[in-house]
Structure formats: structure tokens, C-alpha cells
Automatic annotation (TrEMBL):
Protein name, per record: ATP synthase complex subunit 8
Keyword terms, alphabetized: CF(0), Hydrogen ion transport, Ion transport, Membrane, Mitochondrion, Transmembrane, Transmembrane helix, Transport
Origin organism lineage: Eukaryota, Metazoa, Ecdysozoa, Arthropoda, Hexapoda
Residue spans crossing the bilayer: 12-31
GO MF annotation terms: proton transmembrane transporter activity
Biological processes, Gene Ontology terms: proton motive force-driven ATP synthesis
Record's subunit section: F-type ATPases have 2 components, CF(1) - the catalytic core - and CF(0) - the membrane proton channel.
Membrane-topology descriptor: Single-pass membrane protein
Protein's organism: Anthonomus eugenii (pepper weevil)
Domain of life: Eukaryota
Length: 51
């Protein structure tokens, strides 16, 4: 079985690095924090478990 050429390893590294950075950037811009005024007005829900 022939070995993989170094240029192929380099292309593969760049492909996965690009894909990794793309995922990080997409997740950064998709995630949205709730507005601050909404955080203060929301009541904390507590559950009373009765076994």
C-alpha cells in the first residue's frame, strides 16, 4: 500500500483546520445572549419534588 504524500497531508490539515474554524465562527454568531432587562424580570422557577 503506497504511503500518502506530504502534500496530501498538508491539504488534509488545511481542510480540517478550515472546517474547524468555520464551525467555531458559525457557533459564535449563532449564539445569542438574552437581553439584560429580560434576565432581571424573569422569575426563577423552582420545583418542589414530593416523593
Amino acid at each position: 500500500m503506497p504511503q500518502m504524500a506530504p502534500i496530501n497531508w498538508l491539504c488534509l490539515y488545511f481542510f480540517f483546520f478550515f472546517f474547524f474554524m468555520l464551525c467555531i465562527i458559525i457557533n459564535y454568531y449563532i449564539f445569542m445572549y438574552p437581553p439584560k432587562n429580560q434576565m432581571k424580570s424573569s422569575k426563577k422557577i423552582t420545583f418542589n419534588w414530593k416523593w
